[in-house]
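Below is how a single chain appears once it has passed through the pipeline. First comes the sequence as given, then the structure the pipeline wrote out for it. We keep one example in the README because the format questions we get most often are answered faster by looking than by reading.
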Amino acid sequence: MALISVLFWELQSTAGFIAGMLVSLAIAAAIHFTVPGSEALELKHAIIIAALAYLFIPAVSSIPFMISPQMSPVDAFFESISGWTGSGFTMLPMPDRIDNSMQLWRSVTQWIGALGVVLLMVTILIRPGTSTYVLYQSEARKERIRPSIRSTVRAIWKVYLVLTVTSFSILLLAGMPVWDAVNIAMTSIGGGFTLYSDSIAHYDSLPIEVVLLPIMIAGAIPFAALFTVFRIKLHTLIYDIQVRTFVGLIATGCVLLVIQNYFYYYNDLFTSLRYSVFQLVSAITSTGLQTADISDWSSTALLLLSISMIIGGCAGSATGGIKVAREIFLVNQIKLWLTKTLLSRKAVIVIRLGQHKVVEKAITDELNEATLISFLWIVNIFVSIMLLSNILGPDASLSNIIFEVCSAQGNCGLSTGVINPTIHPIAKLIFIADMWMGRLEIVPVILLARTLFKGFGKY
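Resulting structure:
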C-alpha cells in the first residue's frame, strides 16, 4: 500500500503505511524472539490467537488512518476493525474526500476481513500438519473443499478471486466508474464500505442495484457449494439444504418487507420493491450496502432487517450472523424434541437434513453448539442495548439502537444514523466490542477473558 500511495503521490498516506509496517515488523520480531515455537498447537490456543489477531491486526492497521485522514485513535481503530470484521460502519463523514490509497486500504481490509484474518494467517503460514488445521478451525471453519487444508485454503481463495473479478466486470457493465468498481467489487461480497457517505444511493442507478444483488448473495453462499458450481455442477446448489433454506428466507423476508414499506412509499409498489429487496438482501448477506435512508422506516421494517442480520448467510461463506446452518439445526432440535415426546424411549430417531438422514447421536453436538451460540448472541445483544440506551439517551430511539446493535454484531454495517463520528467514545467502544465478538462468534472472546484471569493452566 505504501508503494501505491507513492504512485498517487500521497506522501502523508505513505508515511502512515510505512509507520504501520514498522510497528507490525517490531511486533512480529518481539513475538518471534520471546514466544517459543511449538508444533503442538491445541484448539484452545488457536482460538485465543484468533481473538487476539482480531484486535492486534486492526490496531496496527489503524495507524495509517491516524496519520493521513488524522482520525482520533478511537475513530481510527473503529474504522480499522470495521473493515477487518467485514462490518462496514465508518467514522469518516466524507469517505470520498480522503486519499485514493486510503480508500483502497479501507476496501482491502474489508476484502480480506470478509474472508477472515485467520484464513489469511493460515495462507501465509500454510504447511502440512495438525497446527495448520487447528488454526483453520479457530475461525469457526469446518468445511473441507479438498482433501487437505492446504488445497482447501487455495480453493477458497480461487473462488473468492473469481467472485471479485466477476463483480468488477459486471459493475463496469452496469455503468459504475472504474475506480468505484475496483473498490465496490472488494466490499460487495461481504463488506459494506463504499466511497460515499450515502453508500450505493449515491449512484441512484437501478442497473447497479440489480447487478449487486447476485454479487451479495454469492458472497453468502458456502464456498464449497460455489466451488462445485465452478466445476460445472450446478445441481449442487439445488440439493444444498443451506442454500435452499437461505433462498427461502430471502424470498420470505422480501415479501414481508415490500408489504410493510408499501404504504411508506405512498402505495408505489415498484419503489417499495426496489428499496425493500435490496436492503433485505444487503442485511441477510451482511453486506451493509444502502440504497435508501432507512432511518424513517417503521419499527416493524427495522425489526425484519434486524432479524435478517442476526440470521446472516450460510456457514462456510464470507457472511456474518449466526448462520443459516445453525438455524436449521435449531429447527430440527424442536422436531427432535417433539418426536422423542411422541415415540417410545427405545425408538431410534432419524432426522432428515436435505438429502441425508442423520441419527440422533450424530446430530447432538451440532445442536448443542447451535443452541450455545444463539444463546450467547441474544445475551450480548441485550447487554449492548441496555448499555447504549443509557449512554445515547433520548437522542436515539430504542428501535434504532436495537437495529444498530444487531447490525454491529451481525457484521453488517447497515445504519439508521445512530453510529456516527459524533457519538460518545464509550458507545463507539461498545460497538467495537460487538463487531469483534460477532466476527468471532463470542466463544473465543469468553475463552480469552477467562485466560487473562486464570491462565491456561486452569482449563
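The longest strand covers residues 350-353.

See the next section for the split statistics.
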